[in-house]
Backbone:
């Protein structure tokens, strides 16, 4: 398992965070990865996100993300190039 420090998805492009914290771009907001199915009254995962293992969710569906330190380990690690 790799750590965020060397991961391609670890990002600080927003620039407003403490420099030790960054956003995981692999963990997307659930609201953006789903569509509502009115027949079943449930959220259905979009095909593009079928292989995702985690999602972020906030109460308003406005903005949510996973923030990590460099030492955080993840099974979705992808080496930065």
Residues:
């Amino acid at each position: 398992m790799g750590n965020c420090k060397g991961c391609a998805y670890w990002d600080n492009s927003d620039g407003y965070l403490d420099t030790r914290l960054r956003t995981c771009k692999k963990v997307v907001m659930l609201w953006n990865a789903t569509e509502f199915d009115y027949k079943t009254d449930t959220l259905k995962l979009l095909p593009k996100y079928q292989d995702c293992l985690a999602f972020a969710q906030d109460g308003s569906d406005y903005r949510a993300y996973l923030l990590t330190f460099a030492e955080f380990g993840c099974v979705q690690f992808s080496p930065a190039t």
Observations:
- The CA atoms of residues 23 and 67 lie 5 Å apart.
- The chain has a mean pLDDT of 90.
